[in-house]
Amino acid sequence: MSAGGGSSAEPAPAGSGRAPARPPRDLRKKAPVRRPLDAALTRDQDAEVLHLVGDLDLQAAPEVKGWSSRLLTEPADGSRRAVAVVVDLTDVPFVDSTGVGALLSVLRDVRGRGGDLVLAGPNHELTHLLASLGLPAVLQVFETREQALTHVHDRPRQQGAPE
After folding, report:
1. What's the whole-model pTM score?
2. Which residue ranges does the record annotate as region Disordered (predicted)?
3. Quick check: is 96 in a domain?
4. Which of 135, 143, 147, 78 is nearest to 107 (CA)?
5. Of 30, 62, 98, 102, whose Cβ has the fewest other Cβ atoms within 10 Å?
6. In angstroms, what CA-CA distances link 22 with 13, 27, 73, 90, 121?
7. Long-range pairs for 97-101: beta carbons < 8 A, 24 or more residues apart
8. Which pLDDT tens digits describe the chain residue by residue (163 residues)?
9. Dihedral (C-alpha) 47, 53, 54, 57: value to the nearest 10 degrees?
């Protein structure tokens, strides 16, 4: 068409009254892909390690709360019950406020059974979120799983904790 009217591939000049051209589809922001949460529970001496993989968000929070009933239970083989839980967050790229609430719910349950819970490997954003909420005063956070396990293994047993 002519330069005076109609459509063209060029953006409209400022003040022309035409809407600006849309950017090509591949340049638009895309919604982030949600990563479903998965978990593995293992034992390391007197600690249970709950390794989470995926997003800890509104959809995953009820599942995390459900896992707390399996933590610090009496082993079927008659061995000693674990006294602490390390929640390994190294493979959790995203945590929302509901996920933080789920972690606090698990903390309450674990402490109600006479145990302790520590976090390991949170990413920078989660570390900042926890600090801004004042949570390091309530629960301990370690950079790595190894640091968390060393802390758990080296701490004196709590009074009343199972032998």
Report:
1. 0.74
2. 1-40
3. yes
4. 135
5. 30
6. 14, 10, 58, 39, 41
7. 98/57, 98/58, 98/61, 99/55, 99/56, 99/57, 99/58, 99/60, 99/61, 99/64, 100/129, 100/130, 100/133, 100/135, 101/61
8. 545 555 555 555 556 666 666 656 555 555 567 788 999 999 999 899 999 999 999 999 999 988 888 888 877 777 788 889 999 999 999 999 999 999 999 999 999 989 999 999 999 999 999 999 999 899 999 999 999 999 999 876 544 444 4
9. -10
How many structural domains compose the chain? 1
CATH at residue 67: 3.30.750.24
Of 16, 101, 89, the residue nearest 55 (C-alpha):
89
Domain of 118 in residue numbering reads as 38-154
Amino acid at position 163, single letter? E
Burial 24-46 (b: 16+ CB within 10 A, else e): eeeeeeeeeeebebebeeeeeeb
